[in-house]
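Input record (Table S2, row 358):
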Amino acid sequence: MKKYFQSELYKLDPYIPGEQPGLGKKIVKLNTNENPYPPTPKINAVVSSIIKKGLLKRYPNPTSEELRKTIAKQNGISKDMILITNGSDEGLSLLFRAILAPKSKVVIPYPTYSLYPILTSIEMNGSTIEKIPLLENLHFDFQKLKKSKGDILAFASPNAPTGILEDENELLYLISHFNGMVLCDEAYIDFAPPGSSLIQFVKRYPNLIVSRTFSKSYSLAGLRVGYLVSNEDNISLLNKIKDSYNLGMIEESIAIEAVKDKKYLDKIIRMILKSREHLSIELSNMLFTVIKSDTNFLFVKPPQNINPIELFEYLKKKYIYIRYFKDDICKSYLRITIGSQKENKILIKEIKSYLLKR
Ligand SMILES: Cc1ncc(COP(=O)(O)O)c(C=O)c1O
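Output record (pyridoxal-5'-phosphate complex):
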């Protein structure tokens, strides 16, 4: 068969997202770190108002100006330090495309968010990735990271799938000594103690880009909104390569309402943190090793006599989806998204009954 595409494309491994069962299926879905609670009800009025006013026949604002203003105000930064993207994944993709000239190098702690290696390989230009394994305690190997060189250093903070938030001073030291751009992916930062975000440092470090998403704390994974924060120069360069209208009008308006309703956001975060605490205790009582999490998920090692894949499969048969990663460092762990209290109860009950059968 004639090959119409670049030969590299035929060899590429695509990103494999967590399983998304069909809508309406009764699944306890704890596999993709979504939020179990609905988004703020304030978004309802805004959607119907756009439709009623017949605004959809027009293109949206190309840079999501109002959303940038709203986020900027809340973070005490200028709106020109923000680039709104179609999910934070689009922001990461723009960043990699903008930086990775042929034969560039990306450095990551390993494991971290599994999209970064894919974003490197899809450039199909000989760019390579250096993976610096986590230490045995699952923290970053700062000694090795500090010695590394590359065009991009990318990591999630708190990290995924471990849920660990690294020490701020260590991260800042790393950023100030790295010779290329540093991507600090803060998809889960709202579940960490207030003040943990590195957004406050983007003015001081010209090589720092922070990414954020509405998919986790704001309960808006289906909406696809995220953003990058960096100094004005970096953001204006990235703006050159984004699609003209990368965010729809409805998406922008919903995200604005979500940012404005800080009280609601704080309420659901509190509920998740409470459930996280409760689930950690329950699993520890069942002799799981629970890594201290600053996210909306737990990375846990089942007791010695329990095979993680078998437990994963058992739960799946009971319509409870969690996540298993088969690579070397993760293979003895399971990642469990924090669900609602009711979902956590079902999960605990099924794990207990599995352990009793062993
Ligand atoms: C670390 C990390 N970054 C980014 C994303 C993707 O976020 P978005 O839905 O905004 O594309 C995820 C999704 O699971 C993630 O775990």
